[in-house]
């Protein structure tokens, strides 16, 4: 008998909607459970690399995202005085690996949400707080998910559960209680501001204990972030003034972006990640995706793109084979073998980038690091990124 083609996706973020769309395209009936009272992604901007755009194309939403975003390239890395540590050459070969699409996070989420709404067989449930989960067994019992919402409680069975409920995943806590998110030691300001004189290419600034970056996300908007070491949970009386002080010694274009940010448009969140890797991304009939599986530091710029890849692979490596009568256990193993090594490598690269970037303190380490970077041709780093952004959908 063919595997039951019903799935529950826990979490209505980027990874969750990507998984739902991918499963629906494979013929599954999908229920998406979102804890928030309404669907909507709060956030500023992000940079989608070529692999992320390949995933969006596989989901059928690539053109919609291109229409709302901005295609550009990575220009390189500066020091706080505005001197180039690494400058990417403007060649076709380098552009192939450094091309990015700056996108407002909310618009990316809206495109995925719309694709899920338009797909056959997708049910969207808001205000759903998962209270219990039984993972079932690939060759036997179905998975069971219980949740509480405005209409009361509900319990359903499913042939597959996709855990896409973020870095503080309830599903992960239940199935892998030994793996917990930890505070990274850094926090991040983020904002989208009206256009300034900033030219729009992705530029990063590495300073002692901090990283600043910016990229254009539309014809009229620039997204910037300021990632810096800070005590967990500590707040500033005036966040905008604090950001101005923290980056006062940075290049003029960075100071202009901070100064152009109204306080009510400035967001800040403490950055958590999963320093301890999961031994498997599956348990019973449950598959872990996105930050629930591999929350990484933002220093590689691969969080959203890797989540999109996960979503595509849920549909193509699990959904489609099982819909064709294949074995779920085999499909889950295939997914784990395809995704876990890659995502854990990306997480390690993020940690390395943080150690040499935002986490590097002042003193002698800064000039030594800066000298090494200046001696490294930008083209070499551009080519090194080929294995990351060269991902193609299965």
Automatic annotation (TrEMBL):
What is the organism of origin for this protein?
Answer: Actinomadura rudentiformis
GO molecular function (one): monooxygenase activity
Q: Which SUPFAM superfamilies match?
A: FAD/NAD(P)-binding domain
Origin superkingdom: Bacteria
* Sequence ranges assigned to domain FAD-binding in this UniProt record: 7-348
Q: Which UniProt keywords apply?
A: Monooxygenase, Oxidoreductase
Q: Name one Pfam family in it.
A: FAD_binding_3
Recorded coiled-coil stretches: none
Any idea what this protein is called?
Answer: FAD-dependent monooxygenase
């Amino acid at each position: 008998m063919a595997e039951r083609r019903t799935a529950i996706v826990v979490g209505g973020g980027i990874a969750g909607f990507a998984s739902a769309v991918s499963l629906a395209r494979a013929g599954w009936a999908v229920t998406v459970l979102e804890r928030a009272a309404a669907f909507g992604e709060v956030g500023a901007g992000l940079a989608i690399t070529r692999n992320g755009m390949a995933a969006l194309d596989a989901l059928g939403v690539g053109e919609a995202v291109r229409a709302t975003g901005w295609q550009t390239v990575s220009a390189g890395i500066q020091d706080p005085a505005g001197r180039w540590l690494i400058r990417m050459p403007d060649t076709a070969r380098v552009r192939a690996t450094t091309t990015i699409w700056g996108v407002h996070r909310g618009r990316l989420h809206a495109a995925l949400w719309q694709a899920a709404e338009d797909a056959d067989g997708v049910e969207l449930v808001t205000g759903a707080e998962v209270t219990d989960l039984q993972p079932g067994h690939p060759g036997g019992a179905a998975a069971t998910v219980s949740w509480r919402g405005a209409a009361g409680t509900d319990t359903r069975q499913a042939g597959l559960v996709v855990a896409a409920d973020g870095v503080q995943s309830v599903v992960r806590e239940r199935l892998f209680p030994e793996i917990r998110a930890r505070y990274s030691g850094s926090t991040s300001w983020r904002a989208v501001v009206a256009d300034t004189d900033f030219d729009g290419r992705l530029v990063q600034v590495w300073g002692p204990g901090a990283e600043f970056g910016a990229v254009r996300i539309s014809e009229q908007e620039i997204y910037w972030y300021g990632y810096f070491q800070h005590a967990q949970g500590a707040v500033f009386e005036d966040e905008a003034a604090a950001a101005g002080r923290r980056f006062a010694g940075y290049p003029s274009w960075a100071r202009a972006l901070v100064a152009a940010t109204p306080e009510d448009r400035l967001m800040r969140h403490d950055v958590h990640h999963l320093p301890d890797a999961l031994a498997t991304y599956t348990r019973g009939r449950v598959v872990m995706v996105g930050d629930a599986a591999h929350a990484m530091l933002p220093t590689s710029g691969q969080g959203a793109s890797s989540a999109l890849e996960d979503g595509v692979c849920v549909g193509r490596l699990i959904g489609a084979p099982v819909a064709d009568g294949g074995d779920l256990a085999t499909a889950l193993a295939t997914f784990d073998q395809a995704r876990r090594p890659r995502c854990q490598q990306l997480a390690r690269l993020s940690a390395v980038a943080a150690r040499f970037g935002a986490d590097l303190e002042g003193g002698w380490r800064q000039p030594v690091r800066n000298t090494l970077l200046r001696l490294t041709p930008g083209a070499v780093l551009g080519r090194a990124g080929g294995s990351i952004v060269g991902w193609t959908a299965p």
